[in-house]
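Hi R.,

Here's the chain you asked about this morning:
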Amino acid sequence: MVGVWSLELGVWGLGFGVWGLKFALCFLNFALWSLLFGLCSLNFELWSLDFGLCSLVFGLWSLVFGLCSLVFAL
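And the predicted structure, written out as tokens:
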């Protein structure tokens, strides 16, 4: 009888181990998706920064061109 109980406990333990593995894989999957989303967000931030810097450079060049045009007009 003790052997049957031990076998039953072993099966229950195996079942819980499988469920634990499934939960671990789900959380790992969620972590990987979060990492991917974070990398995409970082990529978007870098593109926004690049666009902002290009706009700043264009604005400065426009300012210099405007000042030079004003000097030549005088």
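The chain has one helix and no strands.

Let me know if you need anything else.
M.
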